[in-house]
Amino acid sequence: MSRIGDLGNALYRGKVQYDFVGKRRRWYAISALIVLVCAGSLALRGLQFGVEFTGGAVFQVTAPGVGVDQARTAMDEAGVPEAVVQQLNNDRLRIQTPNLSKEERDKVVTTLSKDLKVAEDVIAVQFVGPSWGAEITKKAVVGLILFLILVVVFLSIYFEFKMAVAALVALVHDVLITVGVYSLFAIEVTPATVIGVLTILGYSLYDTVVVFDKVRENTAGIATTGRMTYSDAANLAVNQTLVRSINTSLVALLPVIAILVGAVGLLGAGTLLELGVALLVGIAAGTYSSIFIATPLLADLKEREPKMVALAKRVENRRSSGREPAVATASTATSSGPAATASGATASGQRQQPSRKKKRR
Fold it and tell me: Is 10 exposed, middle or buried (0-12, 13-18, 19+ CB in 10 A)?
């Protein structure tokens, strides 16, 4: 078996454990700092919305050897000094302007053709009205709100309300970080960004549900046995699903990195940048939040219940008397369930038979 396989097996059985839930204040502080930086950037700098949201015109010019400064000079001459000029690759420029009349757009095309020494037919013009941008913004916001409501309803039915709250906080955490990165690095927000954000919300929820399902399995009947606290069982669940979460995230990130390096970096496909960044940041944030935010927060919420407070006291008394180990293992979690307690099953699934002594003749 490989080293990763050995580590995964040890984590699942509880022979090796990392204290994710016990150190939750540290993770809360790290996340709070990141979220504050992103929120501060959003408040001070805002987002750079694409023409699809704000309305305006986009001119794409194929002009080998022409730089951004030359294009900006041409736009000043055309009477549009507020134009945003981007270099897509060595021979293509993208120029975004506010709403222009047909006469103003024609003047821009003529000026660019003359100053950059290119034919007018190589200048592609895209015009988007402001009403279309407002409509797509409204639909994006409505879609996000409906998604969050359905998440709470689904998790409340499938698990419980406190798990839904923890998952929702993790989702908001992921969205703030993803959107904050767009503000910090002044990356344009386009419909592709909205698609990327909605995609990573589903991914983050999927990863959290996997961990929560294991938490529910480990905590079945936990209040009646007194062998481990809710936090111990939740931390064991995170460790048991840790290797799976990391492997899934790495497999998901590889094609995203290929998009950013190959399509954006080498081929200059700027449209894919808005999608790729959302996926890259969102998948990483979703994996982090399912381990360091959602499960520790769930443990915080559950530990405040009266029966869990009483359970924690019983476990502490047993451990102080030396009757129970301080670290929960998979066998402890398995024996916490009512079915396992009744059957006397061990962690390996084998039934322990009583020893028989030979009769003397």
Answer: middle
For 194-236, the pLDDT digits (tens) are 888 888 888 888 889 999 999 999 898 888 877 889 999 999 9
- Please name the residue that has the structure tokens 């006469």: 103
All structural domains of the chain, each given as residue ranges with its CATH number in brackets, are 3-49+132-303 (1.20.1640.10), 56-128 (3.30.70.3400)
Question: Which amino acid belongs to residue 299?
Answer: A
The total of other beta-carbon atoms located within 10 Å of residue 148's CB is 15
Rounded to whole angstroms, how far apart are CA atoms 152 and 122? 51
In the chain, the N- to C-terminal Cα span, in Å, equals 50
DSSP 3-state assignment of 21?
A: coil
Average pLDDT over residues 57-70: 84
> Model-level pTM?
0.77
Question: What pLDDT band is residue 259 in, cutting at 50, 70 and 90?
Answer: confident
SS3 content of the chain, % helix, strand, coil (to 5): 70, 10, 25
CB atoms within 10 A of CB 319: 14
